[in-house]
Every structure is written in C-alpha cells, then in structure tokens.
Amino acid sequence: MAEEAQAVATIGCEDDGLRALLYRTESGEAVSDNPPTGEYTEMHWTALGKALLAQKSDAEIEAVVDRYGLPKGTEQTHTELDSLMEDIEQVRSRGYSIEDNERSSGVKAIATPVAIHDELFDNIAISIAGPTSKFTEDRIENELSTLLQETANVIELKKQYYS
Predict the structure, then answer these.
(1) In sequence order, which residues have a C-beta less than 8 Å from that of residue 51 and are 6 or more positions away?
(2) What pLDDT digit, counting tens, does each position of 81-117 carry?
(3) What is the pTM assigned to this prediction?
(4) How many CB atoms lie within 10 A of CB 63?
(5) If we measure between CA atoms, which residue out of 5, 16, 20, 79 comes closest to residue 44?
(6) Can you tell me which residues the record assigns to a coiled coil (predicted)?
C-alpha cells in the first residue's frame, strides 16, 4: 500500500483511550511527520485515531474526551467535542477518516478501520499519510480511499482464513 500510494502507511490500535502506532512503512518517495512505531497520542488529531473513535459509541467517545481532553496540535485540530463528533459522523458515513493538518502542519492522512476482533486487538485501523500537496481531495476520493479500503479487506480476509 505504501509503495502504490508513494506514502507512509501505518497500522494502529486503541489502547486505553489513546492511539498506539503498531507498525509503519514507507515508499522511497514518502514524506510525513515521521511518527515512531510504539508512539501513543490522543486520537482526535490523527486519521488513525479518528477511524478508531468512529468504531466507538458516542458515549465512549465522550468518555475518552473527558479523560484526555482535546489538546490543540495546530490551528486545524478539533478542540471542541461538537466539531469532533461532526467529523466522526462523516467518518462513519464514508468509511474513512481524514486528518488535514490537524496534528502536524503540512501533513494529510486518511485511515479506515479494519474489522479484526480477537484476543489481541479489538479496535485497529490502517492509514496512508503524506504531504498535503499530494493528498488532494480528488486523489483521496478517487484513488487513496479505494486503495486503503481494499487493503483493509485483504487484511480482514487473511486474518479470517489464514491465521
């Protein structure tokens, strides 16, 4: 996925209300804010985190916000619950989240949940990230979202039939 998108690809999970980055890979052309594997951060300002939040009930999201707040990363970060919930509703309806300069200026990402529920993971997502100039609305809608969702489906099938 990283090679095809010429981007950074990641997989992450939710751990006690935070986004944990489990794995990261990139193509030779990739540029992002270089988050390290193992990093924990608030969920509201990353595409992975918002894809993870979208799998929760509204009450569970409110509990996460009550616990960690909505700290500001950039001018684009959701710092109000109502704004975040509107974004989460869009994620739920279109099937993927968008991070648009919310954690780091100049970085855009999209993420989608992966339906794997077992003893290790109950809530995971995958993402593709890169510079905002390469993540246009048209490319996200017509290329990257499809690549992302196809990759999630392959992961789900491999987990179901090959593990």
Answers:
(1) 91, 96, 97, 111, 112, 113, 125, 127
(2) 999 999 999 999 999 999 999 999 999 999 999 988 6
(3) 0.92
(4) 13
(5) 79
(6) none
